[in-house]
Amino acid sequence: MNKPVKQHLIDPEICIRCYTCEMTCPIEAITHDDNNVVVDAEKCEFCMDCIPVCPTGSIDEWRVVTTPYSLDEQFGWMELPAQEDLEDGGDTGGMEALDEAMAALLAEAHEGAGGKSKAPTSASKASVNLHNLAKPAVAKVQGNFRLTGEEADSDVRHIILDFGGQPMPTLEGQSIGIIPPGRDADGKPHLPRLYSISSPRDGERPGYNNLSLTVKREENGLCSNYVCDLQIGDEVQVTGPFGATFLMPNDPDARILMICTGTGSAPFRAFTMHRQRSRGSSGGDMVLFFGARTPDSLPYFGPLNKVPDRILKKHMVFSRIPGADKEYVQDRMMVEEEAIAEMIADPKTHIYICGLRGMEVGVDHAFANIAESAGMSWSATRDAMREDGRYHVETY
Amino acid sequence: MLDLINVSYDTQIPNNVGLSSDKKVLKALEKWHPGYIDWWNQLIPNRYQQSEVYLRTAVSVDPKGWAKFDYVKMPEYRWGVLLAPQVEGRTIPCGEHAGEPAWQDVPGEYRNLMKRLIVIQGDTEPASVEQQKALALTAPSLYDMRNLFQVNVEEGRHLWAMVYLLHKYFGRDGREEADDLLRRQSGSEEAPRMLGAFNEETPDWLSFFMFTYFTDRDGKMQLESLAQSGFDPLSRTCRFMLTEEAHHMFVGETGVGRTIQRTCEVMKENGIEDPFDVDRIRGLGVIDLPLIQKKLNLHYTLSLDLFGQEVSTNAANAFNAGIKGRYQENRLTDDHQLQNDTYKVWDIVDGKIVQHDVPALTAINMRLRDDYTKDAAGGVGRWNKIIEKMGIDFELKLPHEAFHRKIGVFADKLIDPDGKFISGAEYDKGMVEWLPSHADGDYIQSLMKPEYEPGKYARWIAPPKVGIDNKPGDFEYVKLAMA
């Protein structure tokens, strides 16, 4: 069997045959007959030039296929075929990324969900890969603030990037790639590193085309040191956005349970800000379990405390407070057992886990305990939630 | 270095033509600008001027930068002068100068012809905004209101585009023509717009959708032919306008499609199989399919008249001079001069409708009209798929080109929608079935009640399948200012 590939398609039921995409495509990969406008899988290089010019949104369709649909097949379509169920790589939740390297990184990050990730049914459709290695966007650094205390043993930074006139439509939960300058040992440019966006869809500052990242300085980390040392006004090469499943539900009644450690808080800051901005003071029905060593090493400790409980119920958990017992997120989850059991049983609840890979086992174990005490099978519940787009893991 | 891709905001007028270093034209445009803003402000009711509308604004003319979405108050929309990037070594695509380098300035011998074409095109742009000025009051949803305003601001920008050409390349009489574009008014007794179809009010939303589908498609075809012009600045202007025009086609096609969808849904919900059971269907507050056919007949035939005479020496001259080309001239594979070719045109001989060959050069209008009809027929086929999918036995179709015409060989002839000659009595009797009556208009008017709650739609129209800019269903496309 051939290795599955991603194919760019156009939805014939939405397309109005204006041929703007065809005129825009720099390599004539788009063509039409009397029936349909179609993309030639052998020619398309995923440059994305055709995506913003489409007036209908029909152009933004992707399928993973073992054999790409031929032009003749596409000419004959009355409607778009559903995503085939492929054993490997059939990604019905949306295309996370179009280049292999980024897709592989995200697939690895999402492995902890225990199966194929799916976006929440009410999530907005994410744009992916508008900028790639060959044609990255250039962002300007607008801010670089240390989030952890002077005494803290970690240096976590809040970086604000401005994209000026370049399009960078993002959703909460998506990531961007940063290309560190310089060359690797083989003299090739470095591959981009992925960072979760920590600002909501309308920008770090509403209405501005900017976004923020939450980055921890890693010892000898090529890219993290580069990013943490950025100065205001510096220019950064950016790819993406990436990710099409770890997204928040738009349904205002959806309940959100978030569990994170360290910089895993980035997407949850975005989730919270989006709900705050879109729902105002009407409440949020979000719960956050956030683990760190000490309060001054917990990113956004101050601002988080200012978010009212009716929007976000916060459980900040510390493992290195002198004189206190070590407490991890899974410990606090057990304390809140009843509240969590009630949420798991509610079909409106969406669960998100984000942080270091090491947290997965403990959190999963806590969920299993809680579910089973309530008479539910955790693995069955989790699989059903995941299939429903309501269980998401991103760890690294 | 002059940046000709990204839009420069260093003058009052966003542009990618280096206006800040072209003082003379900048000054002329800045003088014209207040008149334009006045025109806009007096046109659309103040409440909507003060509302935040989720619009797309071009921030550059390369594919990635021209669709930036954000809330903006319409009077603060950045209208500007945007030309598609210059293609190195572009040549004149057709006519006796075919193959020579494209003109970067207006050749003296064609100055008047060229100016006239630009003025006619420019005159239609503000005219349609004038025709549609009252529609927001009855918008069937905030989504539709946003689409209306997007069409309006872009028509405004298209006026800017033509005015720039007049100021830059036609000196004093160009400036006078630019002023006249703001002086004429759609439907005015003293100073009407130049083309008849642009002096009729757009009275309701179905008319608006039909107008954007059929009449704006004529505009698109005219832009397509000017995009092939040997006068490079005109070609580049029109090429960029076409990317915006696609949105207008989208509003028309999906607007009519959603109306059809809703009618079929309501028929099904109420067990109505017969699409001609008009009274019952209207009793349910949706627009019956036969009435949609009548509206289609009207708007299609009015739009055909915009193409002018089938055989035209003016059109032949414009093509031969390389001022305008045929639809997708650059993709055609003939000699691009048409000296020895023929083309089939309609005619009436001995009381019969026939087609015969004429020199292709004289049939440029007819050819563009044929391309238009083919383009327009595609969407009608897609509307029929909606009806078919809903299991209703009804088919919309374009009437014969000879029906209900005011210009060309068929003007004022007694011909039915199938293209048959009929008697005056038959014609009068048939018109009730073929074109919307006053009663039909009143019925549509009775449905025109605004729906201003995000995510809600008036009863007679279905929600769109996909939101603008991928927005969810309940997105607030217009944040209405308090009345």
TrEMBL record, chain A:
Its cofactor is FAD. This is Benzoyl-CoA 2,3-epoxidase subunit BoxA. The keyword Oxidoreductase applies. It is an enzyme of class 1 (oxidoreductase). InterPro entries: 4Fe4S_Fe-S-bd, 4Fe4S_Fe_S_CS, Benzoyl_CoA_Oase_BoxA, Cbr1-like_FAD-bd_dom, FAD-bd_FR_type, Flavoprot_Pyr_Nucl_cyt_Rdtase, FNR, FNR_nucleotide-bd. PANTHER family: PTHR43314. GO terms for molecular function: iron-sulfur cluster binding; metal ion binding; oxidoreductase activity. Residues 134-248 form the FAD-binding FR-type domain. Transmembrane segments: none annotated. NADP(+) binds at S196, K216, T263, S319, R320, K326, G355, L356, E394. The lineage of its organism: Bacteria, Pseudomonadati, Pseudomonadota, Alphaproteobacteria, Rhodobacterales. Its EC number is 1.14.13.208. Keywords: FAD, Flavoprotein, Iron, Iron-sulfur, Metal-binding, NADP, Oxidoreductase. Residues 6-35, 37-64 form the 4Fe-4S ferredoxin-type domain. It holds the Pfam family FAD_binding_6.
Automatic annotation (TrEMBL), chain B:
Keywords: Oxidoreductase. One of its GO terms (cellular component) is cytosol. It is an enzyme of class 1 (oxidoreductase). GO terms for molecular function: oxidoreductase activity. SUPFAM superfamilies: Ferritin-like. The keyword Oxidoreductase applies. Its EC number is 1.14.13.208. GO terms for biological process: phenylacetate catabolic process. PANTHER family: 1,2-PHENYLACETYL-COA EPOXIDASE, SUBUNIT C (PTHR30458:SF0), PHENYLACETIC ACID DEGRADATION PROTEIN PAA (PTHR30458). This is Benzoyl-CoA 2,3-epoxidase subunit BoxB. It comes from Marimonas arenosa.
